[in-house]
Amino acid sequence: MLLVAFAFQVCILHATWRKPCQHKKCNKGFFMITPAQSRAARALIDWSREQLADTSRVALRTIVDFERGARAPREVTALAIERAFSEAGVAFIDGDYSGSGGPGVRLK
Question: What is this structure's pTM?
């Protein structure tokens, strides 16, 4: 079990915003929303950063830094942000699967 957790951490460390780690034992399905998608999702549902912080239970400073591109959030934090948006009716579009339009957001 410990080895699996370590392999998963390696994937997150090697993954970029859009591309998962290519190591054989890493999680190749990793997908993290981008700062631009977070800003667009907030605009789509008319949320402030404070509302996102309250709903996702993530620190406001973390959301500000993430949306500025200053630092990437930990995976659990990114999942909490994504879950809050999903519960509010936002769907994220991955650029790899949405044709030539690139990553984006839409209402469910």
Answer: 0.69
